[in-house]
Amino acid sequence: MASRNQLDLFGNDQPELFDEDAPTVYYHGDPDRVRSRVLRLIAEARAAETMPWDDDDLRLFRKIVPQMVRWLPEEEGRQLCFDFEEEIRRLLAA
Length: 94
Prior knowledge:
Blueprint lengths: L30 H17 L7 H14 L5 H20 L1
């Protein structure tokens, strides 16, 4: 017999996991955290004379930086993406 502190694994006392009526959860990025993270990546690239990341990390950063800056004002996001890509081009040419 199950203890009162333990859920009944076969009973129907759990809420539905995929409730179609449940409200959709939306993530809202924090612009200050996004800005800080992207600026750290740019600073790390600027401080390096050769590529500081392996191929997998570089591929990841090139994919997520444009997505991250969507939480920033449009012009600022474009500038940060440009700065990031300029540093990547410089490091790849080194």
